[in-house]
Design goal:
alpha/beta; rod-shaped; single chain; Rossmann fold
Length: 286
């Protein structure tokens, strides 16, 4: 009876148990009688060292997992960006730096500005099917326009400017050089402030002193001299010169069919002017 119970006790004490929270029971057995070491093994110290190693291993495993996830996320983001998935799914547009070159490009719609004195004032635009502004007055001189270029021209953002001025300057006895210099300043102002606009400057119109009721001190010779200077100015400034004088003249006089008083144009005269202006417009568009 005694030997049977003793065998059972021995089996229980030699059973080895291993768990996460404790060390192998065999590691804590006192073996000092074998190697002569009188110091007993510290079970708690061994357990602490094993737990420290387990903790470090856990941290290292977590870091490796985090790096793997981060790398996968980066690759996924790059793939989504390159295939426009961000924009299509999340409505996120990638920011792209684009180098923009600033330059003037003719993208404006056509807008014509006609500026002048009594000749422009009487011009009818019933058959002119384009956007236009007529800035005119019977008494306008070059000085009047120079006083406010912004409100007379710039504000309309013209693509084309037709200038017909100077006759009233001669009536006011201004010199040819002063008249031409004022025209030059008007043109320069347009070039500097509305650089995309195409500029046309008309010659002075002829007169006819043989017509009844003619009343003007302006002579044909003075008009011809002035036109020479205006034409030269247009060449220097590289703008268009419209020789309306030659279009309306016959034997150095304004054609009688174009006027009733020898100075202002009648309806036939304005039809001729309108035809000449349209010719310049159509030639440029072609």
């Amino acid at each position: 009876m005694k030997s049977k119970n003793t065998k059972k006790v021995v089996e229980d004490t030699t059973r080895i148990r291993i768990t996460e929270d404790r060390i192998n029971d065999a590691d804590s057995i006192d073996v000092s009688f074998i190697d002569g070491n009188k110091n007993k093994i510290n079970k708690e110290k061994i357990l602490k060292e094993k737990k420290d190693h387990s903790f470090l291993y856990g941290i290292l495993k977590t870091l490796v997992l985090f790096l793997i996830v981060a790398v996968l996320f980066i690759f996924a983001f790059m793939y989504a960006r390159d295939n426009n998935l961000l924009e299509n799914v999340f409505h996120i547009k990638p920011q792209v730096k684009v180098k923009v070159e600033e330059k003037e490009v003719k993208t404006m719609d056509y807008n014509y500005v006609f500026i002048g004195d009594y000749h422009t004032e009487g011009l009818e635009f019933d058959n002119f099917y384009k956007p236009y502004v007529k800035v005119s007055n019977d008494s306008y001189t070059t000085v009047d326009i120079l006083d406010d270029l912004k409100d007379h021209i710039y504000v309309y953002n013209p693509t084309h400017v037709f200038i017909e001025l100077g006759s009233n300057d001669l009536v006011d006895e201004n010199s040819i050089s002063e008249l031409v210099n004022n025209l030059k300043r008007i043109v320069r102002g347009i070039q500097n402030n509305r650089s995309l606009a195409t500029i046309y400057v008309e010659s002075l119109y002829p007169v006819n002193d043989t017509v009844d009721d003619f009343n003007s001190d302006i002579s044909i010779e003075l008009i011809k001299k002035t036109n020479i200077e205006i034409k030269s100015m247009c060449k220097d400034l590289d703008i268009n010169y419209i020789d309306m004088y030659d279009e309306l003249v016959e034997d150095d006089l304004l054609k009688k069919e174009y006027t009733d008083d020898g100075i202002k144009l009648n309806s036939d005269g304005y039809k001729k002017v309108f035809k000449v202006i349209n010719r310049y417009i159509e030639n440029e568009r072609n």
